[in-house]
Amino acid sequence: MTERNMLELLSPVGDMERLHAALDYGADAVYLGGTMFGMRAQSAKFDADALKLAADEVHARGKRLYLTCNTLPRNNELPMLEGFVKDAYSAGADALITTDIGVFMLIKKYVPDMEIHVSTQAGIVNYEAARQFYNMGAKRVVLARELSLDEIAEIRAKTDKDLEIEVFVHGAMCMSFSGRCLISQYLVDRDANRGQCAQPCRWNYALMEEKRPGEYFPIFEDEKGSYILNAKDLCMIDHLDKVAEAGVNSFKIEGRAKSTYYVSVVTNAYRMALDIYKSAPHSYKLPEWIHDEVFKVSHRPYCTGFFFGHPKECQYYPDSGYIRDYDVVAIVKKCENGRIYGVQRNKFLRGDELEALIPGKEPIPFKALELFDEFGEPTDMANRATMEFSITSDLDLPANTMLRMKKV
Length: 408
What we know:
Layout: E1 8-12, H1 16-24, E2 29-33, H2 48-60, E3 64-69, H3 81-91, E4 95-98, H4 101-110, E5 115-118, H5 127-136, E6 140-142, H6 149-157, E7 164-172, H7 183-188, E8 207-208, E9 216-217, E10 233-235, H8 240-245, E11 250-253, H9 260-279, H10 288-293, E12 302-303, E13 326-336, E14 339-344, E15 348-349, E16 353-357, E17 364-367, E18 371-372, E19 381-382, E20 388-392, E21 402-406
Parallel strand pairs: 1-2, 1-11, 2-3, 3-4, 4-5, 5-6, 6-7, 7-11, 10-12
Antiparallel strand pairs: 7-10, 8-9, 13-14, 13-21, 14-20, 15-19, 16-17, 16-21, 18-20
Helix pairs in contact: 1-2, 1-9, 2-3, 3-4
């Protein structure tokens, strides 16, 4: 069992707005990508200067920042690695997450003091692999997603206590072994192992017989075809006690390409869940409202992955779309003189039922009974992007509180 006070909540970050959200809503650490060598090319927002700003902000709050360096680089990319690694060290990154053994050894050469975490891309599924990475100098291993809780517990029991173990507990799952997939590269020449995945596992597939070209037959009983490769999303919020008891140190949320709202809500829910576990480890049970929070973000149907053995219901064949029942409608700027002042994100009307999402607290429902535009004039709706507004209310909400609304 891992010491409860050493449990880390690790949240994904795609830009500075999401970094602030992760920190505001309770992350102990964040992981993000630079402009090279990261597995999410579309969320590679942090050049050397931006990384320095991010690291300074993270450290000012007493948190940690991990930088991805987990692609499988080709020969022509290796000469750029030294500058990337040294820039990361100078900027203040607390660790580099890497997959490739050659990259691992070059990091040790270029910046010997840099902490190294071995990515889930490395496919670590046994204690001997974890031991050898530790012997090479790894501080942490991010285990393959295909492991059960019993297998994780055995790895923990048979490795050095100073080796940290991290696992994904929430987010999208990949129809491949630990994310090492070739489908995207074959179909559209976008290499998933270099951060360019087009997610063809989410596409709609059908069967065609060779002597009847152009005639498509559904593989599954659906006239639209079959989403045969489409996985459900992972959600372990109801089972964090079991994950902790297996010896996991870091609880990782997937989603560097997800929205600020997603990062805020999911981080907040898992923060509160972990705190409940720490306070009562032998009787872990979530209040229903915390459990419900992870259903208020855009998500696919949930499952528990491989944690309880072979996943019997982790594929989702009807479609590849998301369930999205709530929208962010505004961000709070301040509260004073009996009004909430905010900036609009999505349209809402006077009289709409809203919820205020406050870090570490149950969402507060309230009605926008009196709505005013940026000039203080009464209005029936906030319908312009980034429109400033105010709502009459006695609530005293922190700056950057998100206001959301259930979709009808």
